Give the backbone structure.
Amino acid sequence: MKTFILAVSSVMTVTILSSIFNLIPNIEVGRSASPVLRYSLGALYPTDFAARVFCLILAYVALKKFILSLPEYIGIIAVIFTINLVTDTRLDTILMILILVCCILKKYLEKLIAYLGSKKINLLILLFIFINIILPYIYTPNNVILRKLDNLLSTRLYFGNLAFKNYNVDLLGQYIYQVGNGGIHHSPITNYFFIDVSYVRILMMQGLVAFIYTLFLICKNSSNFIENKLYFYEFMLLMVVLSAAIDHHFWEISFNFTLLATFSKLTCSERNLDYEGINNSRN
């Protein structure tokens, strides 16, 4: 985790400075009917930059086992405020705030996870993922509830629905041509189509086999974390599961570092002493 934080933060610093000094483009975009400009600071798009910061904050907080000091709270809040001001990314900002909520409610969440156990947690994870597959599949603008939800999710349901309409689910995946807002465009984009939700993206582009394998990895890691009482790692994984519902970076190692836990030897010795209290309270 330390290597991930050092590597990603170093590259981000160079990228930000390069964009500030005009060595690389700093993409400026705006929302429709809004005067607010959003900046990418060297990333392909403002949401990519915000997603990268989310991953860095999550890695740092997980390294601290979701136990932060007051200066660390203040520092992270300042970062979240700055990122929201610069990129105007609502969903990633909410995810970053949820990380702090996990820190504040840490003991209560640990007790809840210990009470539910790995099987029930995995069932909830799978239910959440399948909801993120089903909603775009059944989406129709005629449904008021789905339309409002789609607006909240920045049209992710609409474009997921387009993917299901135009392509079949392939066993081993397929190439899907997409036109996103990221990067430099010399003319207005008139045929925008991009799959932002990682679960839909994996199912449609990597195929059914890769999708099932992804579910297996998530549940395997979740079970290992809970059975070894490494609840701070479970918080970390659950935050990544949430972020994959709005971001398309699940299989990108420079974003999602939790997959590396698949190849790690996890032991109970990594947990904090206060986790023992959770076990004792159940006996």
Summary: Confidence is low (pLDDT under 50) at residues 272-283. The CA atoms of residues 40 and 46 lie 4 Å apart.
